[in-house]
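Support reply, case 0932

Customer input (verbatim):
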Amino acid sequence: MATLNFGDLRKGLAIEIDGQPFEVVDYTRHKMQQRAPVTRVKVKNLLSGSVTEKTFQAYETSFTPADVSSAEAQYLFYDGEFYTFMDMDTYDQHHLTQDQLGDSLNYLKEEITLEISFYKGAIIGVKLPTFVDLEVTYSPPGLRGDTAQGGTKPATLETGHTLNVPLFVNEGQTIKVDTRNGQYVERVT
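Our regenerated output:
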């Protein structure tokens, strides 16, 4: 298998460190006087989701690319135990647990298209689209006069997730939500 040097590092690259797959989030190189250059790499563990920073001597270390792949899939249904997804190319069905999906459940609705990630053939998680459109199922009415400071109120979405929305958003409306930070973006007409 090919190895990667520090010149090959880039954001989003999947590498293997100590037998675990990591995604490069950020990296910097530091050259100090009369010392070998040092590279600090911020990486996200693709199995646990934790983000750590590691320091390497630039000329002494090489990396192995992680055997990570992804496939486009569609969420089909939840049967009480597993969430079922269908691979859009092969039509194979994949079953994931609530623990494997984590916070993605807040934005998961039937027939949404997303990416499933695999590490050495085993599913390690899903990657949602950046924005999803969800219907507001419950939101208390905004009070007149609360708009001077651009107020917000809680709203429950069709997935059961609750987030803050502007006062003008009402039940039955569809809103766009950013899945990276879980915040309201805009109303969808």
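We compared this against your earlier run and they match. Two observations from our side: Residues 6-65 form a domain with the SH3 type barrels. fold (CATH 2.30.30.30). The CA atoms of residues 4 and 63 lie 5 Å apart. Please reopen the case if you see a mismatch on your end.
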